[in-house]
Queue: 4 jobs
Job 1
Amino acid sequence: KLLRDLAGPLAAVGGGTLLAVSGILAWNALENALLDQRLRNSATRFVLVNGAEINVNDIGEGDVVVVLDSGLGMSSLCWAWVQDKVAKVTRVLSIDRPGLGCSPP
């Protein structure tokens, strides 16, 4: 419904904008579903850092620990496929900064 409501105004700007907005909406829906799944994952926990709760997804085993921190206001989900691959050889953590992903503001 939101996309339908936006279609008229966006058509005036250009079809590319409509495509970009629909891509963003699709990513949002996928990200929300993946976040829900991650919260149910036993590898996900919250750690208190300087008074802020940080969501940490901790998988793999090894002496070397790799920490994945996303930029540009994205959540740890942008690292999910990388984290799964790295976890095959060592321990890897992906984190959500406060207010991003599963971490509260």
Job 2
Amino acid sequence: FVRGRPLTEEESYHMSGRQLFVFTSVQFAATWALGLCIEDLGLPMALTGVFAQSLAAFVIPPCLLFTECWRRGGNVCGYSFLAKVYFCVVLLFGVTSCTLGVHSTIASYTTA
């Protein structure tokens, strides 16, 4: 994203100590600033929970499988067509549950 092109395999899996330090420091500073500026952390924490639940359980696993499938040129480690459809349904469910969860969470905080 920053370089304006897709990362190569070497760039995406290896970070130097300096790059890791800068990346972690920026994340820490942003989190610290938000923690200091926001008086009521209820909404940010609720949204974090919604994202973590749906992404970790329903979005990331199918995306990892589809990435591996793409890398191997269509070979999906022995998964049948029906299994691939199932993973698509799981991915759509994850995106839907994340969207509805965010909508519900924001609605509960704006009406209260």
Job 3
Amino acid sequence: QEDHGCPSTDELPDGLATFMSRLFDMIIAAKTSDGRPVVKSFSWFNENMAGGTYNLRLFEDGKLNKVGEAYIEGCSRWGAAQKGLLQSPPQQQQPAAAAPPPWQAPPAPPAMAP
């Protein structure tokens, strides 16, 4: 593959950019049984050809590439999900998992008599 890029396929139409988008789908969807988010942080880094099979760079010649665009879009969606502005990521070629029961606050304690 040219420049060690991840090839575009039927499953990954935009190559590594599609992988990046789906990775963020999984990050956003990962919840505890009571609906709390599981993933607290995420790092993406790579030294050129040091341990990486594919070119993982987010920039090409100082300009954001498709993978970088997918990373920024994914971070933006994840941030919106953390703020409650995004309910769930779009599902892509994965069977839908059973939704956890909605979270409910515990009942308030009874009022104390004066």
Job 4
Amino acid sequence: AGPSVEQPPPQQPSHPPTDWEELLRDRSNKLAPDDRVRVQQFFEQRYNPTPEQPLYKMKIHEQRGRDPVSGQEFKETFYLELDYQTFTSKQSKKVKRY
């Protein structure tokens, strides 16, 4: 028998997280559990749980901060809109200053 060569362990098939998976992981502190499922169904299965509603907009994230220049406090609210006719999504943001 020849010299034994250690085989590297088989690689687990892993894919880099998609944009929507990163979004759910990193910016979703206001996402309702039902909406989280809806987003997964939209991107993975192109499934619409509410067929009578071709557009669905949800609040997904909120963060507060302070403008470094003016010192003014603000709140950013992020929204995700799912378009079931074209299966495209778009994000929007609303900033409220105090």
